[in-house]
Amino acid sequence: MTSVGYGQTALGFGHYPSCTPAAIMKILDFYQIPIEGKRAVVVGRSPILGKPVSSLLLNRDATVTTCHSKTNDLPDILKEADLVVAAIGKPNYLKGEWLKEGTVVLDAGYNKGNIGDVEYESCYKAASAITPVPGGVGPVTIATLLKHTVEAAEKTL
């Protein structure tokens, strides 16, 4: 992750976006979850996850709100979301009662004890689709890293 790589991602022409944001997009595409025109809320603003995934979603015509732990009225903002990416780095932070029925939830958090950023049981009840921790975004992130590595190596041959 460099400023050049982030800039390319934000402007929509990067070849190798950060692996976790790219993995999130691959999951959405694999399950044919619509992005265009949807309200996406990214909870997290890190330069390697929150900001790049916000850019990738925006580049795919989602209406994106980027929030964080200091966002006022986060539950009210989440009630409007069709798609939520949890990347805040706080275990079980997002609660199911904060979501509207049918929200797609991607938990990119990983905390001590194999706990995600989403309170899985309560969010599962509200979500139309949800990624678990462990076993959701993480393995796809690793696969994306390997794919990027192989593609970059092949370009140098």
Largest sheet: 5 strands, parallel
Number of strands: 5
Strand portion: 5-15%
Low-confidence runs of at least 5 consecutive residues: none
Would you identify the CATH architecture?
3-Layer(aba) Sandwich
- Distance between the first and last residues' Cα: 23 Å
**Oligomerization state of this entry?**
single chain
By CATH reckoning, the class would read Alpha Beta
Output the radius of gyration. 15 Å
What is the fold named in CATH at topology level?
Rossmann fold
Mean pLDDT value: 95
**Helical/strand content category:** alpha/beta
What is the count of distinct domains? 1
Shape category: globular
Can you list the strand order of the major beta sheet? Answer: 2-1-3-4-5
CATH homologous superfamily heading = NAD(P)-binding Rossmann-like Domain
Order of helix and strand elements from N to C terminus: HHEHEHEEHEH
Number of helices: 6
What does this structure look like?
With 157 residues, this protein is an alpha/beta fold. The chain has a single domain, classed as Rossmann fold. 40% of the residues lie in helices and 15% in strands. The protein is built from six helices and five strands. The protein has a five-stranded parallel β-sheet with strand order 2-1-3-4-5, with helices on both faces. Helix 3 links the parallel strand 1 and strand 2. Helix 1 runs parallel beside helix 3, helix 2 crosses helix 3 and helix 2 crosses helix 6. The longest helix has 20 residues. The chain is globular and about 50 Å long. It starts with a helix and ends with a helix.
